[in-house]
């Protein structure tokens, strides 16, 4: 049986003024495309780092359902490191905090699923070092 594939389409444009726009699923993302990135808009490396964060959070929601994992809030901080020559992302680290009353074993199960089944996670882990932790924040009564 052939593997199923999904395709993604993004259109983007620039007019040479350092600000570009990408459109995906009807949403517009404005980003910095200048030779020397400014501080006002995200650049390509920021967007890649944000895609990694989005992958983790999407899969918290996904596996929250499939594993019947009880959680109330999730937040993640992701750091990526870039080298100049040759230019590439060399390392990604993250800290994922989840408000939950689940046990440490269930939290570990969720984390294993995030690292095994995330499309962006696996794509980046294949080309750079990816490490992170998942922290339970106790729910309040």
Q: Your description of this structure?
A:
The chain has 141 residues and is of the alpha+beta class. The chain has 2 domains: 1-42; 44-138, K homology (KH) domain (GMP Synthetase, Chain A, domain 3, 2-Layer Sandwich). 31% of the residues lie in helices and 37% in strands. It has 3 helices and 6 strands; from the N terminus they run βββαββααβ. It has a 3-stranded antiparallel sheet, with no helix packed on it. A 3-stranded mixed sheet has the order 4-5-6. Strand 4 (71-83) and strand 5 form a beta hairpin. Helix 1 (44-66) crosses helix 2 and helix 1 (44-66) crosses helix 3. It is globular and about 50 Å long. The chain starts with 10 loop residues before the first strand and ends with a strand. The model has no long low-confidence stretch (mean pLDDT 95).
Structure at a glance:
It contains 3 helices and 6 strands, in the order βββαββααβ. It is an alpha+beta fold. The chain has 2 domains: 1-42; 44-138, 2-Layer Sandwich (GMP Synthetase, Chain A, domain 3).
